[in-house]
Amino acid sequence: MHNTTRVAVVGTGISGAVSASILARNGLSVTLFESARGPGGRMSQRRETTEDGTELMFDHGAPFFTSSNNGVLGLVKEWQLRGLVAEWKEKFGSFDCTSSKFTDTEQDQVCKRYVGVPGMNSICKALCREPGVEARFGTSVGRLDWLQNENLWMVTALDGQNLGHFNGVVVSDKNILLPPITSVTGRPQPLDLKLVPEIADKLQDIPIPVHPCFALMLAFAEPLSSIPLKGFSIKNSEVLSWAHCDSSKPGRSANSERWILHSTAEYAQSIISQTGLQKPSDALLKRVSEELLQALQMTGINVSQPFFMKAHRCLRCFLLEISISHTSILSSLPSQVSRCTLTFTHRGSAFPATSIAREEKCLWDRKKRLAVCGDFCVSPNVEGAIISGVAAASKLKEILLSCL
Ligand SMILES: Cc1cc2nc3c(=O)[nH]c(=O)nc-3n(C[C@H](O)[C@H](O)[C@H](O)COP(=O)(O)OP(=O)(O)OC[C@H]3O[C@@H](n4cnc5c(N)ncnc54)[C@H](O)[C@@H]3O)c2cc1C
């Protein structure tokens, strides 16, 4: 039975979805708001349709995750029992472009590799449907206002729609807290940090450098049989850092062989320095697709021509990029963006490289009952995001269940 104490969770990435599920299981009434059309954030799955109508699915964000944390492993066990997660038992390793050799590093792997089934987003999808959770997709939160007299948060959508009043809020993306780059995103900053000075203090002067990435989705009619591994890091390449066979994961369709390539951060940065931060044009994405495929073919690995290829760029990855490469790209940015550069160090990313709440695992304003979670709080991966989401739910449920 869910009570009338209401919590808003902003973001259906793994940290927000885990947080929402825990709060709802404790009887609180949870509403999840997500800008995207579906759940998962950086664990989302992409559906592509070829010209002849064939449907292709790709995990274009995190390809898998590992964990050595007992709390996370407990959740993973539960998800495995529900059929949402499976172990990806294939051969992994590396390819050295200098020696043109694959190395199987399977024996060095201590942790199991887990994937969502049938897509990386399956966990978030299921958590968003749990009893007590209402998920509203395609709903960007534009403002979070603290109503002092009512002791409540008021949540407003980007389009001005009133999304309701809530006793507590979980925010699971840095860009909700940090100054906007309106000229690039068109989005105002939803939360005024003056409302939560303790959180603002913790955010101050802590850079969160990140590594940008392009992902290239490829589909082949025939298996790439010359590749002995299903996932490998690529050494000594200026363009490519990782490749994996997405269709080799458990629960995927075997109608075609689908691979994903990840670019190096340096390559992605070089593209930003040439094009700026605007939404990439189809022509740019086509160029990136061709360059990444060509880089793979030039490694000497025998790769046939794909019948489908498409590059994907995550805008948030790029905004974060600036923190590590701002000196080299400032000249290519609009002047108003240049002035915001230092604040970008706090914004969302593909892989934030530092954490800001290693001890508490989330940021927390007890008086106003607002928790901030996400991978940037703990470690730049799925495990870190889960740990942070659990911590945020734990802070909020403790106070909401005792005081209200
Ligand atoms: C290419 C790539 C490869 C990766 N590889 C790995 C890997 O191998 N292993 C691993 O463990 N991790 C990997 N990661 C990292 C992993 O995906 C992330 O650490 C994790 O998914 C972050 O989850 P999160 O909940 O913190 O954030 P996110 O997944 O980013 O979720 C935040 C959500 O908030 C939503 N949101 C933001 N603002 C608003 C708003 N105003 N209103 C409504 N919704 C909003 C966003 O749309 C998003 O869905 C990879 C990531 C990428 C991009």
UniProtKB/TrEMBL annotation:
<protein>
    <recommendedName>
        <fullName>Renalase</fullName>
    </recommendedName>
</protein>
<dbReference type="InterPro" id="IPR036188">
    <property type="entry name" value="FAD/NAD-bd_sf"/>
</dbReference>
<dbReference type="Pfam" id="PF13450">
    <property type="entry name" value="NAD_binding_8"/>
</dbReference>
